[in-house]
Amino acid sequence: MEEIKIDKIIRSRRKTIALVVSENAALIVRAPMAVTLEYIQNLVFKKRLWINKKQQWVLRQGRFIRNKEFVDGEEFLYFGQLYKLKIWTGENIVLTDVLNFPTKYLKAAKPRMMMWYKHKALEIIRQRVLFYSQLTGWKFRSIKVTGAVKRWGSCGPMGSINFSWRLAMAPLAVIDYVVLHELTHVVEKNHAAKFWQQVKKFMPDYKIRQKWLKENGKFLNL
Ligand SMILES: [Zn+2]
């Protein structure tokens, strides 16, 4: 029988029991005053699969928020897929079933990797902007992928659109949302109701993609 450690029990005048997995994967039980320890332990045992899953998920997330170390086996996101890093003696960064990263780049690993992502992002984003431009009939002037960290995209007054290199880690569905969002700014400058109507017209499920980005955006980094 697999034991699940309860890190903390917080009793209060609440009426129900809540199991909470904290940011550092600790299990915290919030319980009413009168509930026995045995009852709590039984409940935790019953919910052990959920707790385990949740704790692993939290730990996995933690690995992503930490800065990358560029060591063998470390996981990197590439258009929504995870790839293990493999340090190799080759000349370039090459994606096979693993992400091969040259030993000679290790001295400046982060900027090298960022450049690679930037390049890949531009390839894909250019295609997607062209696709949505044709679909909507909205014309843009130029596309750039920048080193921006805080913003996913921006649209200048003359229709020049910029995207963050970090989008090369996002799933395509999410990239499409950012692309359509910025392209919509060619015709609607601010985020008024009209803006969202336009986005919805061409992407009825944009809210799901927007939510994904809001929740997972912090993992798209080096
Ligand atoms: Zn906007």
List strands and helices in order, with pairings:
Layout: E1 8-12, E2 18-21, E3 27-32, H1 37-46, H2 48-65, E4 75-78, E5 81-88, E6 94-95, E7 99-102, H3 109-136, E8 142-146, E9 153-155, E10 160-164, H4 172-184, H5 193-202, H6 206-216
Parallel strand pairs: 1-3, 5-7, 8-10
Antiparallel strand pairs: 2-3, 4-5, 6-7, 9-10
Helix pairs in contact: 3-4, 4-6
The structure holds zinc ion (ZN).
Instruction: State the helicity in percent bands.
Output: 40-55%
The total domain count is 3
SSE order, as H and E?
EEEHHEEEEHEEEHHH
Q: Which ligands are bound?
A: zinc ion
What would CATH call the class of the largest domain? Alpha Beta
| Helical run tally | 6
CATH superfamily of the largest domain: Metalloproteases ("zincins"), catalytic domain
Shape estimate: flat
CATH architecture of the largest domain: 2-Layer Sandwich
Distance between the termini: 39 Å
What gyration radius follows from the Cα positions, in whole Å? 23 Å
- Biggest β-sheet strands, sense, barrel: 4 strands, mixed
Number of strands: 10
Helix- and strand-based class?
alpha/beta
Low-confidence parts, pLDDT < 50 over ≥5 residues? Answer: none
What is the topology, as strand order, of the major beta sheet? 4-5-7-6
Fraction of residues in β-strands: 15-25%
Q: Which fold name fills CATH's third level, the topology of the largest domain?
A: Zincin-like
Q: Mean pLDDT score, rounded?
A: 94
